[in-house]
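Sequence of Nucleolar protein 10-like N-terminal domain-containing protein (Zophobas morio).
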Amino acid sequence: MRVSSINDVKVYAVNTSKTLPEWITDKKKRKLLKSDPELRGRVNLIQDFEFPTAATNINITEDGNYILATGVYKPRINCYETDQLSLKFSRHLSADVVKLCMLVEDYRKLALLGSDRTIEVHAAYGSHYKTRIPRFGRDLCYNFENCDLFSVASGPEIYRLNLDEGIFKQPYKGSSPEFNNCTLNQLYSFLAAGGTDGFVELWDPRTADQ
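Predicted 3D structure, token representation.
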């Protein structure tokens, strides 16, 4: 990649440049990168890193080896392997994905919040479980401590689907008329939800069910 500046505007030119042979050792690769500035400035592009119309969610797995993305049209989820710079798999879905939530450190388990009020759990082989929530969902987050999958929607309730037991627990009910997003503090396990009235409400999932 070459960078030039025209009228204080940087222009990045991505073109064919030197590549490293796959058969050389990691030690020799590091040595070549130190000695050759052109190799250090190269950009590696992932093949098929696109959707026909638009991408809606992009997530990097905790181990950094995979990129999971959802998009349209038609609704689908793609998994890219960063080491190979290529598409690992692609799955078509029945509805647009509002939110993608990782359940483990890699691509093998994930949850999808659909625009048709569905929550779909995927495993490495494909769709594993699908259920429906009463209102149209807006956000998802996952509690690794007790396997609760939280979902906020167009209402005051925060739905709790326990993936270990496979049941819905009693939902939390907030004072906001609707919630737009939610997140979980992984250190203290506090659940925070942002309401349409501009307030943030907190719950402690470690306490008894409400």
